[in-house]
Design a protein that fits this description.
Blueprint (H helix, E strand, L loop, with lengths): L2 H26 L9 H17 L1 H18 L6 H31 L45
């Protein structure tokens, strides 16, 4: 191996090591870290905890109904009327959960930690990006005209 090839190999290995270290350092730092105040983080945590606690019984009943439905579906003599009734009960329980979720999102919007069109405010939490609050991006939610309508962050 000549000197030129050794230098290229050394440079390539050093570059790969640098890129690997940089990638691991970037992966450890949460996106938007430090952009959300501890007060807002506490509001989000509290509202999510309240939602979880208030829907515990509904979720437990939903699990029970699903198990009962599975038992009916896989039994040797399934009861069609009971299957229909369980399906309706499961649907009603899902509707209750959805309603509770909408209520929680309304509270998040009122507290100023979530946008009216979904997603947390720009720069808040991981992945706050364009339009739907997901993916990479500067954390701004522009519409087609470039306005930030519906954004809870003061301009």
């Amino acid at each position: 191996m000549n000197t030129f090839n050794c230098r290229i190999l050394s440079f390539s290995l050093a570059l790969a090591a640098m890129l690997g270290l940089a990638a691991s350092a970037m992966a450890e730092a949460p996106k938007g870290a430090g952009m959300m105040t501890p007060e807002k983080q506490e509001i989000i945590r509290k509202l999510h905890e309240d939602f979880h606690n208030s829907t515990q019984a509904i979720r437990q009943e939903l699990i029970s109904k699903r198990h009962e439905l599975d038992a009916q579906l896989y039994s040797t003599k399934p009861d069609e009327n009971r299957i229909r009734a369980l399906t309706k009960e499961i649907s009603d329980l899902r509707a209750k959960l959805y309603s509770a979720r909408i209520t929680m999102k309304g509270k998040l919007i009122q507290e100023g930690v979530m946008l009216e069109r979904g997603g947390y405010c720009p720069g808040m939490g991981r992945g706050a990006g364009h339009y739907d609050g997901k993916g990479k991006g500067p954390g701004k939610r522009h519409d087609a005209r470039g306005s930030m309508e519906g954004c809870c962050v003061p301009r």
